[in-house]
């Protein structure tokens, strides 16, 4: 299906660049980022996370890296191996919108070209056809279903062009 | 009381699970729920576009909400991905003035505006409202069906957005399933993600998560999995094929849509319920289903 993501080496012993308070501020302004700095590292997020045992940096560690202003957080495999299940966000005792922050980090990583190949293909398909998957007509015929209502591909393209979706990487 | 909604199918259902659409339509017809085709939609964007660019996602998804609003309709969707995307967009655009202004500026040249007045509902929410009517329509009991019900993440979390059921102890859809005489079993991985969103980035990790779920469902004595989402169903009815535990034993369980269970118990003809399109063989439960 897709090449595998999540083969990063351990971060143990990795030396980080100077702390960047501006990066912490930038992330705080993302959707869901408003309460980022209230994290007190209870790690309840990681306790309920379905990929805690499958990533090199767990979600509570991502939160710590964000508070330390470490941009290297965008290279952790937690960013793209987050399933978006929202368990961490639901349970955070500080009400931090953790999953939403991770979506923002994915956006930042995508602009830097750090993204699984599947997302590049999905973007192209969405732009060209207005959808992620095409209908399976023979099944629909067999079940007596009407054709899928037409999508408005032209307006979809207009909105995506306005947001420069196909040129996100060169924006940086 | 006739309820009517524009039905937002999304693209996963017409692509892989036409039996979900067909069984949903059959159940809706039986209950007198009017489903209006959603013309001129954009993709919901789902977590895929949200991961790439949140402003593009809010624009496309906001456009869908605005379209239904312009036609004076509310929206119903049978897909957790579309539901999560539409509800989350509604949540952000309702609360965040700057994003609402930005999205409305983009929608204006298309003759559309997000007003925040459109109700967005999952099909199972609508069914739960009609629990009493469904109960009266049960004509065929499915005793012996032991269901590992998988609610899926975006139906219930974050609860401030989804607003449907208890995020830690959901039971509404289980109540519907149990109207048929089936049992909704307790399984410890019930609330855990199915892994489907990771198929795009790492099939390997997605499959690890699915195996953990299936070992849990088997351990709880379930004889099938039931879902209300085509993304989750991709894991349970496609990726699950041939799945084995560490000792090499099969941990495959048939996977049904909630509408295929309720429809059958409501006496709907099996043909529109589309069982022949279920990929994991239904043999272990065929006798119980009587198909």
Task: Record keyword descriptors for this entry.
heterodimer, A: 172 residues, mainly alpha, 45% helix, B: 291 residues, Glutathione S-transferase Yfyf (Class Pi), Chain A, domain 2, Rossmann fold, 2 domains, four-stranded parallel β-sheet
Can you give a write-up of this model?
The complex is a heterodimer of chains A (172) and B (291). Chain A is mainly alpha-helical and 172 residues long. Helices cover 45% and strands 0% of the residues of chain A. Chain A has ten helices and no strands. The longest helix of chain A is centred in the middle third of the chain and has 14 residues, at 98-111. Chain A is elongated and about 55 Å long. Chain B has 291 residues and is of the alpha/beta class. Chain B has two domains: 3-123, Up-down Bundle (Glutathione S-transferase Yfyf (Class Pi), Chain A, domain 2), CATH 1.20.1050; 138-289, Rossmann fold. Chain B is built from 16 helices and eight strands. In chain B, the strands form two sheets. Chain B has a four-stranded parallel β-sheet with strand order 2-1-3-4. Chain B starts with a strand and ends with a helix. At the A-B interface, α5, α6, α7, α8 and α9 of A face α1, α2, α3, α4 and α12 of B.
Task: Please describe the topology of this protein.
The complex is a heterodimer of chains A (172) and B (291).
Chain A: H1 21-28, H2 44-47, H3 59-67, H4 78-81, H5 87-91, H6 98-111, H7 117-129, H8 137-143, H9 153-162, H10 168-171
Chain B: E1 3-7, H1 12-16, H2 18-31, E2 33-37, H3 46-52, H4 54-70, E3 75-77, H5 80-95, H6 97-107, E4 120-122, H7 123-129, H8 131-137, E5 146-150, H9 153-156, H10 159-162, H11 172-178, E6 183-184, H12 203-219, E7 224-227, H13 230-239, E8 255-257, H14 258-265, H15 270-273, H16 283-289
Parallel strand pairs in B: 1-2, 1-3, 3-4, 5-6, 5-7, 7-8
Decide which structural class fits the backbone of chain A: mainly alpha
**CATH topology of the largest domain in chain B, what is it called?**
Rossmann fold
Sheet with the most strands, sense and barrel status of chain A = none
CATH superfamily descriptor of the largest domain in chain A: Alpha-helical ferredoxin
Greatest interface by residues involved: A-B, 59 and 66 residues
- Unreliable residue stretches of chain A: none
The level 1 CATH classification of the largest domain in chain A is Mainly Alpha
Sketch the topology of chain A as an H/E string, one letter per element: HHHHHHHHHH
């Amino acid at each position: 299906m897709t090449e595998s993501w999540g083969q990063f080496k351990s971060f143990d012993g990795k030396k980080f660049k100077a702390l960047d308070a501006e990066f912490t501020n930038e992330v705080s302004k993302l959707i869901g980022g408003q309460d980022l700095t209230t994290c007190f590292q209870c790690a309840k997020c990681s306790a309920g996370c379905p990929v805690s045992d499958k990533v090199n940096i767990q979600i509570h560690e991502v939160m710590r890296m964000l508070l330390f202003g470490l941009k290297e957080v965008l290279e952790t495999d937690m960013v793209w191996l987050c399933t978006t299940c929202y368990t961490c966000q639901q349970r955070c005792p500080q009400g931090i919108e953790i999953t939403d922050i991770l979506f923002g980090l994915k956006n930042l990583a995508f602009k830097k070209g750090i993204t699984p190949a599947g997302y590049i293909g999905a973007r192209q398909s969405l732009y060209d056809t207005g959808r992620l998957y095409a209908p399976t007509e023979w099944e629909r015929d067999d079940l007596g279903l009407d054709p899928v209502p037409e999508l408005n591909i032209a307006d979809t393209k207009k909105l995506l062009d306005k947001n420069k979706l196909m040129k996100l990487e060169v924006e940086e | 009381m006739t309820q009517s909604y524009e039905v937002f199918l999304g693209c996963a259902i017409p692509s892989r699970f036409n039996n979900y659409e067909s069984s949903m339509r059959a159940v809706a017809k039986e209950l007198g729920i009017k489903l209006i085709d959603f013309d001129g939609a954009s993709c919901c964007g789902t977590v895929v576009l949200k991961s790439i660019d949140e402003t593009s996602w809010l624009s496309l998804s906001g456009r869908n909400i605005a379209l239904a609003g312009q036609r004076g309709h509310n929206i119903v969707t049978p897909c957790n991905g579309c539901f999560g995307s539409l509800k989350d967009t509604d949540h952000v655009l309702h609360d965040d003035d700057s994003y609402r202004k930005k999205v409305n500026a983009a929608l204006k040249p298309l003759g559309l505006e997000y007003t925040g007045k459109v109700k967005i509902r999952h099909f199972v929410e609508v069914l739960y409202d009609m629990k009493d009517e469904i109960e009266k329509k049960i004509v065929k009991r499915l005793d012996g069906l032991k269901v590992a019900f998988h609610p899926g993440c975006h139906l219930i979390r974050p609860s401030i957005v989804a607003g449907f059921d208890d995020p830690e102890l959901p039971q509404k859809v289980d109540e519907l399933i149990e109207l048929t005489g089936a049992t909704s079993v307790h399984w410890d991985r019930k609330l855990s993600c199915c892994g489907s969103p990771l198929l795009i980035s790492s099939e390997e990790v997605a499959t690890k998560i699915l195996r953990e779920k299936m070992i849990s469902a088997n351990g709880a004595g379930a004889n099938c999995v039931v879902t209300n989402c085509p993304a989750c169903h991709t894991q349970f009815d496609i990726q699950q094929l041939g799945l084995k535990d560490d000792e090499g034993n099969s941990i495959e369980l048939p996977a049904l849509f909630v509408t295929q269970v309720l429809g059958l118990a409501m006496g709907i003809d099996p043909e529109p319920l589309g069982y022949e399109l279920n990929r994991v063989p239904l043999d272990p439960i065929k006798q119980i289903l009587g198909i």
